Amino acid sequence: MTTTTVSRAAEALAGAAPLSLEGIVYAVERQPILKGVSLEVRRSEIVCLLGPSGCGKTTLLRIAAGIARQSAGTVRVAGEIVADDTLFVPAERRSLGLVFQDLALFPHMRVVDNVAYGVKGADARARAGEALRGVGLGGYERAYPHQLSGGEQQRVALARALLPAPQVVLFDEPFSGLDRNLRDVVRQDTLSVLKARDATAVIVTHDPEEALAMADTIALMRAGSIVQVASPEDIWRWPVDLEAARMFSHVNVFEGRVSDGVVETAIGRVPVGARREGEHLTIAFRPEALRVFAEDRGGGVEIDVERRTFFGSTVEIVGRIGGTLLKLRADPYVVPKADKVRVVPDLRQAIVLPRAPRG
Ligand SMILES: Nc1ncnc2c1ncn2[C@@H]1O[C@H](COP(=O)(O)OP(=O)(O)O)[C@@H](O)[C@H]1O
Ligand SMILES: [Mg+2]
Fold this sequence. Notes:
The protein is an alpha+beta fold. It contains 9 helices and 20 strands. Strands 6-7-8-3-9-10 form a 6-stranded mixed sheet, sandwiched between helices. The chain has a 5-stranded antiparallel sheet with strand order 13-12-11-14-20, with no helix packed on it. The termini are far apart. Bound molecules: adenosine-5'-diphosphate (ADP) and magnesium ion (MG). Adenosine-5'-diphosphate binds next to α2.
């Protein structure tokens, strides 16, 4: 190879995705658990792998990490193949940081030694101390893990994962063991640390709120496949199907056929753009896309209120129009207790989908 081709190759690798999974299949006793999953993680990007329990998130992460081996497909780290049909680079040589629930801290080792574990060089402890300061745990070097709170232990695990400056840090449900109040704080702290270092991360979660709050990109998984990859805003606004829409909030669903670019629904006419005349569509509105007003304001359609639940800043109204049950959210000051309210859909927020096949 000439110098030019070497530097070209180096350049190509420098621009390569820190982590790329291509056509990953994983089967146990011929049961497919992953059905050909592809995902590319870009530099400094935080990807949240979101899906219900049992859909294969942990399995995919373990394959990326080198803890499990795929039945077919290719794993690349920074452009280099680390696992395919013939090659398998073990976990410790993949330049990946791992924060897994089951990769707990060593209880008999001081915090600083936990962080420095496996790091080579005479300055390993000094660097571990610096890494601890980086996650806000300066002064905790000599403590033992049991002396720290759950959130602090989580930060130690993060410092340990980041110390070798890995290509990507992989997290498996890192916050699910923390109680609700602490979880929000630790989540924000983790995000700040990752962003401050321009780190690339894949975070597995089954919590849609967590994915919306943390991700640059959400990869939505279902039954061994990735069904959508998009930014939080886009996946919220343009879900691929009703199930993807429902992952993030309740949706109020209507059906109808296109006539002159419009679908007539129980809550009014919904323009659907360039759709085939006569096509059967599903139209969904998240609760906040249906504006609720007091009955005396007029306009919109009338809804019979069946239940009203006060949540302080909002009130949830379950109501009915014809045979359709609606879940609505209203401003408690604008919509006083009443048997009827009026609803005006915000048509810009209509989620328009081909009608789901009946299953
Ligand atoms: N080694 C294995 N042997 C048998 N079944 C497995 C194995 N690993 C994973 N599974 C099954 O694969 C599915 C996906 O598991 P997992 O990746 O842990 O899902 P998630 O992390 O999304 O909850 C589950 O049904 C699980 O029981
Ligand atoms: Mg899991």
